[in-house]
Every structure is written in C-alpha cells, then in structure tokens.
Amino acid sequence: MGCYQAEDVTFRPLAHFPPDIWGEHFVTFTPEDNMKMEIYAKEIEPLKEDLRKKLFIMNDSVDLGRKLSFIDAVERLGVSYHFESEIEDMLNKIFKEFAANNFDIDYDLYNTACQFRIFRQHGHKMPCDVFNKFTNSDGKFKESLRNDIKAIVSLYEAAHLRVYGEPILDEAFAFATDVLQSSAPYSELARHALKQVLHFGIQRVESRLFISFYEEDETRHETLLKLAKIDFNRVQLLYRKELSQVLRWWHVLDFKTKLPYARQRSVECHFWSIAMYYEPQHSHARMLLVKVLLVISILDDTYDAYGTFEELELLTEAFERWDLNAMEQFPKEYMKLVFQFVYNIYNGFAKEMTELGKPYAAKFAKDREEQARGHVASGVECYMKDYNMSREEVVQIFNKMVEDAWKELNEEFLIKSRPGDDDLPKAVLKRVLNLARVVDALYKVIDGYTYSAKLIKGDIISTYTQPIPL
C-alpha cells in the first residue's frame, strides 16, 4: 500500500519526475551469462602475459614516443588496470629521460600534446613551455596549425590538464576551441572533442568508443585490441550481474509503490558507481556506493519534492538522534519508510566496514552524503537575485568557477617533491576525479540523472548490454 492517504490535502512541492525507463530490462542474469564471463576471464590471461612481456621489452628498446603512444592506447582501451605497476615504472623512467634533456624533444604538436597529457594524468608536472615552439613572438599559436585537426584535438585535450599560472595553456585552450568550433560542421573528430573532453569523460563510455576508433588504426597492436574487446565484454557481464542483484533488492523494497513521489533511478545509480569505480576488482565498493547513492536520491526527493516543513523538522531531528524509537512521533507513513531505509543502509554499511577493519568509514559517510534541507532555489537563481544579473551572466561566472575548480583538482594530482601529512593518497584523489567526471557528464547539459532518457540512455545501453563483436 502506498504512503498517500485519501484525506491528505496538504500542499506538497511535487516535482512529477519522469518514471523509470528500464522496467525489468536488467533484472535477469543467467547461468549462461556467468559461464560466458568465466570463459572470457580464462581467455584474457595469455593475452595479458603477452602484453606484459611487450611492456617489459619496450622499457629498454623502443623510442620514447612509441612507448608513450602504446601506454596511451592501453589506458584509453580500458585495460591499464592489468598493468598498473609496469606503466608507472615506464612513465617514471621516460619522464626522467625527458627531464634530463630539458624536455627539449623534437616532436610535432600532436605528439607533444599527447605526451604532455599522459604525464599530467599520472601526476608528472611536464612544463607547459614545451608548447612555446608552436607560438609566434606575440605568444599566440601559429595560424598554420589550424589545418591539422588531429593535432588541434590533441592540444585541446592537453589544455584541460592545466593548472593556475599557465597562460600559454589558457591560450592553447582558447585557440583550440576556436579551431574546433570552426571545423565542427565537417569534422566528426572536432564534434566529438567539443562534446566530450577525454579528461572529463566516464572511463567505460570513452573506452567503448575508443575501441571502435582503435580498430580502424593502421598502427594498432592486434593482441592489445583483442584483450580490450574480450575484457570489455567480461567486465560488462560483471556489471550486469551486479545490477541484477541491485534491482532485485530494490524491487523487494517496493519504493515505486510506497514512495511514489521519489525518482526510481537504481540503474542510473549503478552506472554512477561504475563511473567512480570502473575496475572490476572494485565490485564491493560499487555495491556499497549504489546503496549510498539511492539513499541520497530518496532523501533529496523527500526534502525537496514532498515533505512539509514541519514533517522535515521531525525527520531531521530523528536523523540527528539516530534512534528507531524516534519514528513513533512521525505523523506520516512515508517518514517511517524513509528513516528506516536510511537507518538500515548505514547500519549495514557500518557492519560491513567493521568486518573489513574500517569501522570509521560508516560514521564518516553518515556525518557527511547530504545536509538536510528544505526546497530551495538553484544556485543560479540565488546569484541572479543577489547580484541583479541575467541568467547568461551568471552562467558565465559559474562556468569560470568550474574551470578554476578543475585547475585546482589537476594541481592536486601533480606529484609533490615533499608530500605533506595532509596530502591525500593518489587512489583517493582518483575517486575524487572520477566523481568530478560523472558530475560533468551527467549535469553539464541537463540533469542527466533525472532525465536519463534524454542524455545517458545510450551510454547505459552500450555499457551493460552491447558486447563488442570478437
């Protein structure tokens, strides 16, 4: 029975969210699917060993540019997690060689920008003055570069790894953006770069796309391509297995009936967890995160799109007490359902984390996911009102804030000569980066979480249900 009551005539700020678009689509995971996943896992092992030997040989014999190009392909194909230590060792050695030569390497714009991006992605602060040779005396990039769209895309991607105090990269970004916008009507490469920056992209979505590009590359490495395809299909099945478990659990809760005001987005929440932890070995983290995301979603809709001020005050007080007995004072059934759901999720989370030797994790998560609040105007609307500005002016200001925030995040990834005690481990920073990426991908155009049919439906389908032909 739903939580609505016939006599309830209270005004509520209902948002009338779009319904779930998936239904029973991902619920089934068969024994045949499981068997296929195991077969893929066995096929991957000899391919990994072949490539591991190649990486070892490349350490000593191949020129630096080819090494970096191979590493870039491994990473963009989504299989770098198999070779993390080998890749880090190679990059450390290559960076030292570049530094020993004062980074004075005779490469064209395409390769210089690619190498800059790769080093920055791994925390090596390759100096931005490697781009000086591509500029005129006035600091502007040479107009003759405009005709090489592939190189301009490479420059555009590299410019997104800039930090504060790098005006040449700000100029590179402006120059590349102008060229790509002019080229977009006749260049698919330019259109895709403008639509989705590699540094901001969701890894599995970008890997799926890059596999099709790499397949057409005349310089492709066949063993690497085969590994990427089989590994994508194996991990895709793992994601589907996880998602089927999430959906069965969610259907038992029956919030579609009991909390009809709330968004039903369990598929989107699991997709979000993939964006944060795409590597297959992080299955447990994904399964925990998807539940946390669903808690946030239910709370967000309860506070913003259903509860009255008086009801939400009671609910907030109950969360602060963290006591099931607090439910006795709730006047509405939906409040009991929401409180019980959040309470059970976090207590289960605490139990699991304690068993894993991390009892502090659940308390940290509970103290922080999301501050209780009433229905409020958006940040843009508040800024417009406070400063008497138009929406267009405020959006420009907010875009600049986002740009600066990315510079700060990029700076955090650069290896410090003397890391302080307060520096976060790179593994943690990587998840922060992935969170920024998923927010960019889901919210830069519209609210892609709420209106997933308009923005990420295709990405979800390709991630979960479209294996790559072998």
Concise synopsis of the structure shown:
This protein has 470 residues and is an all-alpha fold.
Description:
- The protein is an all-alpha fold and 470 residues long.
- The protein has 2 domains: 31-227, Glycosyltransferase (Alpha/alpha barrel); 235-464, Farnesyl Diphosphate Synthase (Orthogonal Bundle).
- It is 64% helix and 0% strand.
- The protein contains 20 helices and no strands.
- It has helices spanning 31-61, 64-76, 84-100, 109-121, 149-159, 167-183, 188-195, 203-215, 222-253, 255-258, 266-276, 283-305, 309-321, 333-355, 360-368, 379-387, 391-413, 426-443, 452-455, 457-464.
- Helix 9 (222-253) packs antiparallel against helix 11 (266-276).
- The longest helix is centred in the middle third of the chain and has 32 residues, at 222-253.
- It is globular.
- It starts with 30 loop residues before the first helix and ends in a 6-residue tail after the last helix.
